[in-house]
Amino acid sequence: MSDIIFHHFAVSPFSEKIRLIFGFKQLNWKSVTVPTIMPKPDVTALTGGYRRTPLLQIGADVYCDTSLIAEVLEKRVPSPSLYPAAISGLARNLAQWADSTLFWTVIPYAFQPAAIPSLFGNISAEEMQAFSADRTAMRGNAPRTSLGEAKGQLSEYLRRLENMLSGDTPFLLGAQASIADFSVYQALWLIRLAPAISTIFDTYPKLLKWMDLVAAFGHHQSETLSSTDALDIAKNAQGFDIEGRKFFDSHGIPLGEQVVIMPTDYALDPVAGELVIASDNELAVRRQDERAGTVVVHFPRVGFQMKRVK
């Protein structure tokens, strides 16, 4: 089987979600560290423009968004499952809430001035300004939440999560960990990295115990790989992960058409290519790049939009 190549950076919450899933499933992986801000020439060579972190690469297949990455890892190693049968639908819905509503509530709380040294180390004022400008550009016209609103809403969410853990089971939805645990954890993890603001957890002992339990899965085993080597692997790979999906037409666009795919919420960078997958939960395009060769870039249906190239 081809190696799992993970493109990420250290303080990326969504990257931490997948790193812990590697630990949960005991998967070996190769680690490519990407820049925290644009430009990201090696990333865009693989994706054609998609700039969010993280990415999963297997040969010449590039998987975007952690909801799809988790599905790919589940297919690779089905047990232990991220989607236990009895709670699969509930786990997916809770994960989607955590990856969107909870995450965007945490961000303004986590990026308080007091937390910055813990998150970024000795970052200069110029570097922090560049990071802030990059994230502002990513979000575009998306609504902003004030610190006061974020703290109030976050406190309510923490109370609800503490309540979910009030029984005898160790994880949010029962005795087994699920995708919901990793998705909720990834947002809260960012706060816990910064002692100056992590006191918000002090009145939620069950939540703290649960966070320790999820963190204990660890990241398993990884090897460092350069982004140049990752591009070479894509360029020299044989075959693509495009078989076995039933065609689901919701756009009136057949396979083989030239399309663009991009997120629906922020970082609206379109990726153009030939449509090769349109299944019930996945879209993918095949595209050419001088450095990466022929690659297939995969996206989940939920959270993304597709249009025919005019």
From TrEMBL:
PROSITE patterns: GST_CTER, GST_NTER. The lineage of its organism: Bacteria, Pseudomonadati, Pseudomonadota, Betaproteobacteria, Burkholderiales. Residues 84-240 form the GST C-terminal domain. CDD domains: GST_C_family, GST_N_family. SUPFAM superfamilies: GST C-terminal domain-like (SSF47616), Thioredoxin-like (SSF52833). This is Glutathione S-transferase family protein. Residues 2-81 form the GST N-terminal domain. Gene3D superfamilies: 3.40.30.110.
